[in-house]
Amino acid sequence: PLVSIDFEAHLMVVDPDLLIPRYIEAGCSTILVHAEACTHLHRTLATIADLGATPAVALNPHTPPEAISQVRGLLGMVLVMTVNPGFGGQAFIVSMNDKIAQVKSLIGSRKIDIQVDGGITAATTKAVTAAGANVLVAGSSIFNGDNPSAYAANIAAIRGASAL
Predict the structure, then answer these.
(1) Which terminus of the chain has fewer CB atoms gathered within 10 Å of its CB, N or C?
(2) Burial class of residue 66 in the structure, from the number of CB atoms within 10 Å of its CB (0-12 exposed, 13-18 middle, 19+ buried)
(3) Residue 5 three-state SS
(4) Cα(10)–Cα(28) distance, rounded to whole angstroms?
C-alpha cells in the first residue's frame, strides 16, 4: 500500500499453489508459475485469477511452447526463460528466439505479454523483441559493476536496441 507500482512474483518453486495466496495478499498483481511445477496448471492459473491477480506461465528452455496451448485463455503473460534458471550472468540461449516466435504464434491476437528473462543485453534485445517479446528482464547487464551512474546508460542501451 506504500507504493503505486505493480509487483510480480516469479514463483520458481516446486509447489507454487501453497504460496500463491500469500504473494497476492502481499500485493503482487502478477503471479508467474513454471508449467512443469504445477500438477494441474489450468487449476493453478484459475486460482491466481480468482484471487485477483494476473496469471502467468514460465517456460524453461526445455519446456515446449505447446505447454500453454490449453491454458491460453487464462494467461496474461508467458515468460520464456532464455537461460536455465539458477543464477544471474548466464549467456543467452540463441535457440530461444525460435521459441519466442512459436509462443507468439500460439498466442495469436490475444493480449498476452511475452516476457523474456536471462542473458538480456543490448546485443540480444533486438532479436528477442523481433521474435515477439515485449517485456524484458535484465539484471546483470544493467547492474554489472560498481558504478550506479552507469545503470541509466545500460537501460538506455537495451531500450535503444529494441525492435519495438
Answers:
(1) N
(2) exposed
(3) coil
(4) 10
- Among the listed residues 114, 89, 113, 119, the one whose alpha carbon sits nearest the alpha carbon of residue 100: 114
- Among 70, 64, 82, which residue's Cα sits nearest to residue 123? 82
Distance separating alpha carbons of residues 42 and 49, to the nearest angstrom: 11
User: For residue range 84-113, what is the model confidence (pLDDT) as tens digits?
Assistant: 988 788 899 999 999 999 999 999 999 999
The 3-class secondary structure across 22-52, one letter per residue, is: HHHHCCEEEEEEEHHHCCCHHHHHHHHHHCC
The pLDDT score that the predictor gives to residue 146 is: 75
* Cα distance between residue 39 and residue 47, in whole Å: 13
